[in-house]
Amino acid sequence: MTRVLFIGNSYTSVNDLPGMLASLVKHGMPGTAFLTETLAPGGATLRSHLRQGVAPQRIREGRWQYVVLQEQSQLGGMHIDGVAFLGQPEALFFPAARQLAAQASSAGARPLFYMTWSRREDLPAQRLLTDAYARIASELGAVLAPAGVAWERVRRERPELELYAEDGSHPAPAGTYLSACVLFSSIFRQPCQATPVPSVPLTGDLVRYLQRVGSEVALAEPLPELAAPLPPPPVLPGLPPGEPLEPARLAGPWRGTLNLYPKAQGMSPALLNLALEAQGMGVSGRARLTMRSQSAEAPISLRVEADAVSFSIRDPSFLEASVAFRGVLRDGALQGVASAEDPQGGQWYGSWTARPETP
């Protein structure tokens, strides 16, 4: 019996990719015993699977032949001034992938990396995804199921074919079927030539096309390389030079904005209010963030060092994390940078400004 454990998120669970793969095996390899189990909560990163502990436990207990690892679609994600970018794989994806792959190997299973696809509106990002998955699979001697490469090929050859759901991110049935074909050929090292799965609303010609593309991409040795070089990483907000700071200069109410939360959801810029009071060489007070209909307010204690000030406020409603602020006084305004790490490990960076409120 071939036993496969899927560890991922909604990119795995939408349209039941494991079940679709099982149906392909049933139709294409009659008599082959095939069993799957899925751990795929929405938005999960491989790091969050490690932290929660269920995935490592099931790896140890399941007697799997393959453990399929699917990272969050943005490689953990990075937001800069409210705009989403792919996360740097070295920061989040690779460390968690190494640990889970090592656990799978120790339990007698072969790790298999399920490469995802770029968003509909960001096809060039596939180059980064392909590079990240190919690098980690090569480093660890793991199987690579290059579904993202197959998606890219179909998008170029048949742009009218809709692989995406309405959100431009998750797969439509055709996208899941293509991914299942890639996984079939990656696991069994043979072309996917199964008869159409009845539950998939696709025509016979389309099914055969997706089977052919999925098989050819999965069985290509080596993986087709993309000619375009990797784009440079995005630039993080930086702290400008500031004026010497004294606690007395910070006392009073301040009002400004923070660019940190998703602009696509209308949450940036958020409003930032500070009410500060100098206490000897220190400064304390309250801070309030207002993001659309959500807000976070808490007492703060500012740390003043030469020309920089720092403080933090916990956002319990959206990020569910502490937002760290660092700033300087420049031309009568406080301006600086903010950062946070969400519960899944995603990195958030932004910029902020605040000016004294006039009576």
From TrEMBL:
<dbReference type="InterPro" id="IPR036514">
    <property type="entry name" value="SGNH_hydro_sf"/>
</dbReference>
<feature type="region of interest" description="Disordered">
    <location>
        <begin position="339"/>
        <end position="359"/>
    </location>
</feature>
<dbReference type="GO" id="GO:0016787">
    <property type="term" value="F:hydrolase activity"/>
</dbReference>
<protein>
    <submittedName>
        <fullName>SGNH/GDSL hydrolase family protein</fullName>
    </submittedName>
</protein>
<keyword id="KW-0378">Hydrolase</keyword>
